Amino acid sequence: MTTDNKFWGWLGHDRSSANGNMVWGQYAPKPFETRDIEIRVTHCGVCGSDLHHLRSGWRPADYPLCVGHEIVGLVVRVGSAVTDISLGDRVGVGAQSGACLNVAGDCPACAKGIEQYCPQHTITYDARFPDGSKANGGYADLWRGPAAFAFAIPDSIPSDWAASMLCGGITAFTPLLEHHAGPGKRVGVIGIGGLGHFAIIAAKALGCDEIVAISRSSSKRKDAFEMGATKFIATNEDKNWETSEGCKLDLILCTVSSADMPIEGYIGLLDLNGHFVQLGAPEDKTPPFSMFILLSRHRSMSGSLIGGRRQIRYMLDFFAERKIRPWVVNIPMRDANKAIQDFEKGAPRYRYVLVNEENLNWARWGC
Ligand code: NAP
Ligand code: ZN
């Protein structure tokens, strides 16, 4: 397949694109370089971050903007300096597409294999590569970018599952590993969406003793138990959950992105020395809370950003070996606007994946 310098994708032109007003159109990809590859996109997951960017929620977006950072597809073009990827390979790209990758020690993050914390981190869309060209995502027919952030997908993982893992999966899995989730550990997961459902599934696969799903209502209770939860808290329905369930957990992953969250109640679920990891990224500041909630039980708090390249490869192998099945719902790429409208309503159970149909050029032919 030959590609040109005009890709097709769903473009957000202003904040209203987050309401389902993306427009299918052409855009110029970055200039093709020797270390780049091109992927014919077959699948792209819909992440909460796509909505934040489309509506300029965190900062003004660099419109026009093609979002999507859970990309899987087939390699259709390989730069001359790429040695580990071949034409026809099935690969995936997550939320990061660039970093300085200086492992000689100048960049402590890249040297440690945690490239997501590289100061020169390029996110997969709504960003600029070092040459100033725009980075665009996977709600598209093609993706072009550095091969260094493309990952071979194990044969046993279907492409729709793999797509959802490349941001949702790794963001949940990395802090579980970092905080030694496994036998003997009691883990809480707040917000049962794309990230949260992965956190439950992965905590079960890691052998955690207790997995407490913390949701606003009881509507996801049955699903959460099926995923592997051992207990369910519905914060808007269960009376006195803050006290009856307080001080019982070792680790909490919080995926909530609303500033309107009962943060003291959440932190209070942690036992002595418990650790709270914030994954969700509110557009407003997180609500203030009393420091005594940390002081009183030697609790601690941190944030965590996606995962590094080594961690992603490890996750893919681990998920393949354990036959981890994410709960994905496939939606035709042509229905991307409907998908993000439904996402905003909280409809996904639990990750939408946009699927390009057989004839990837459908839009070019005016279908
Ligand atoms: P999602 O599928 O919408 O899941 C978020 C969950 O949060 C919802 O399912 C809901 O769970 C809960 N929630 C929503 N509104 C809430 C509210 N007002 N109060 C309390 N809970 C609420 O979204 P996602 O794709 O998992 O992404 C979640 C967040 O993580 C987003 O901010 C996204 O940008 C961020 N993110 C961060 C990273 C990272 O590297 N740290 C990576 C990817 C995404 P219940 O219905 O169970 O309450
Ligand atoms: Zn994401």
What does it look like?
The chain starts with 6 loop residues before the first strand and ends in a 12-residue tail after the last strand. The protein is an alpha/beta fold and 367 residues long. 45% of the residues are buried. It has helices at residues 48-54, 108-111, 159-178, 194-205, 221-227, 241-244, 263-267, 292-295, 309-321, 336-344; strands at 7-11, 23-27, 36-45, 71-78, 90-93, 96-98, 122-123, 127-128, 134-135, 142-146, 150-152, 186-190, 210-215, 231-234, 249-254, 270-278, 300-303, 328-332, 351-355. It folds into two domains: 7-156 and 323-365, Quinone Oxidoreductase, Chain A, domain 1; 169-303, Rossmann fold, CATH 3.40.50.720. The chain is globular, with a radius of gyration of 20 Å. Strands 3, 4, 5, 10, 11, 18 and 19 form a seven-stranded mixed sheet that branches. Helix content is 23%, strand content 25%. Helix 3 (159-178) crosses helix 9. Helix 10 (336-344) links the parallel strand 18 and strand 19. The chain has ten helices and 19 strands. The model is unreliable at 362-367 (pLDDT under 50). NADP nicotinamide-adenine-dinucleotide phosphate binds at residues 47-49, 52, 167-168, 171, 191-196, 215-216, 220, 255-258, 260-261, 279-281, 304-306, 346, 348. The site of zinc ion has 5 residues, from loops.
